[in-house]
Amino acid sequence: MKRILKAVLPVGFKANGISCGLKKSGKPDLALIYSKLPAVACAKFTTNSIIAAPLVVSKMHLKSAKRFQAVLINSGNANCFTGKEGIKDAKASAGYVAEKLKIAKNSVLVNSTGIIGKRLDIAKIKKGIPALVSGLSVAGAHKAELAIMTTDTFVKEISLSLNLGAKPVHICAIAKGAGMIAPDMATMLCFIMTDAVISKKVLDKALTAAVDASFNCISVDGCMSTNDTVLVLANGAAGNKSISGGTELQGFSKALGTVCLELAKMVVLDAEGATKFIQIDVAQAKNFLQAKKAALSIANSALFKTAVYGRNPNFGRIAAAVGASGIEIKEEQLKIKLGSLKGKFVHLQVSLSSGKAKCRVFTSDLSPEYIKINAAYN
């Protein structure tokens, strides 16, 4: 397995990113991913009960179509809490792409990120579609990545290749996210492309496992957004024997898990205002769920996160967070080992002394800069 921190599209994919004027800054704000071959698609969405219009439309398309060829993403506007008009705009944007690419409308998936509660300027998107489509390129993934960023300070992209049988298979992914990051995903978008031959059922199983161990194990501020999406397209251009089980599935699942975990770490590294990257390892739990509850309770504790920012090794914050997690634990069972708080990377080890299960979670500290960034976000 070979990986690089750069977006190299798999066989059969093209991408592009442009500025259509949604952002006042003039920065790129409209991205398109396109597969020449119709692809199977699977997605994991936010568990927030308030979801953005593009997610509603994408869910509809995922139910009504079996194959997909395009993903349209805009930044600068979340198209959320916009009522029936928001749904209308999301459908229209998919239609513009479908018409220009000459593909079925329900083979286009849509996504948005940015300000909540403001209607999308669909006229600007419509005007930008021709240039977006004409500029599609096998080298365009980086442009697409730039166009989906909001408060991100660096690009989040990765490519990986592996051999399945005698065939090389490729996976490429781009993501955005820096704030409103909570377990069960966040203000986080991730788009994964692969040329592997794989069924939707098997792909969904692999994606579920990959997301559970990565994007669902990170937290920046414990705030869940309305647009969170992890989407994967598999177009089968690699020509490998269809992945169904055995070593092929193990290899593909490991690669997909690596891609998701690396991007999840990048999100935490880019956390708004953060000065520390914190790895929390909870071990000797009764089961994985117990370990994860304890780890996330610590990761979402504002008291723990601010203590780390202040380089204050206050073990009481950690003990209180574990006790408040809802798991059954006695004082004599809890063991805490906190590494140095001086550098960028902080390691916390917690033992529950009740079993063999474990969970690893990543989070960041909370600083005054986080408050400044979000107090001014509008």
Helix content: 25-40%
Round the Cα radius of gyration to an integer and report it.
21 Å
**CATH architecture term of the largest domain:** 4-Layer Sandwich
How many strand elements?
14
Output the CATH topology of the largest domain. L-amino peptidase D-ALA esterase/amidase
CATH class of the largest domain: Alpha Beta
How do the helices and strands follow one another from N- to C-terminus? EEEHEHEHHEEEHEEHEHHHEEEH
CATH superfamily of the largest domain: L-amino peptidase D-ALA esterase/amidase
As an assembly, this protein is single chain
Distance between the termini: 43 Å
Question: What would you note in describing this structure?
Answer:
This protein has ten helices and 14 strands. With 378 residues, it is an alpha/beta fold. It has two domains: 2-269, L-amino peptidase D-ALA esterase/amidase; 277-375, Ubiquitin-like (UB roll) (Roll). The strands form two sheets. Strands 1, 2, 3, 4, 5, 6, 7, 8 and 10 form a nine-stranded mixed sheet that branches. A five-stranded mixed sheet has the order 9-14-11-13-12, sandwiched between helices. α2 links the parallel β4 and β5.
Structural descriptors:
single chain; about 375 residues; alpha/beta; L-amino peptidase D-ALA esterase/amidase; Ubiquitin-like (UB roll); 2 domains; nine-stranded mixed β-sheet; five-stranded mixed β-sheet; 10 helices
Question: What would you say about this model in short?
Answer:
The protein is of the alpha/beta class and 378 residues long. 33% of the residues lie in helices and 28% in strands. Strands 1, 2, 3, 4, 5, 6, 7, 8 and 10 form a 9-stranded mixed sheet that branches. A 5-stranded mixed sheet has the order 9-14-11-13-12, with helices on both faces.
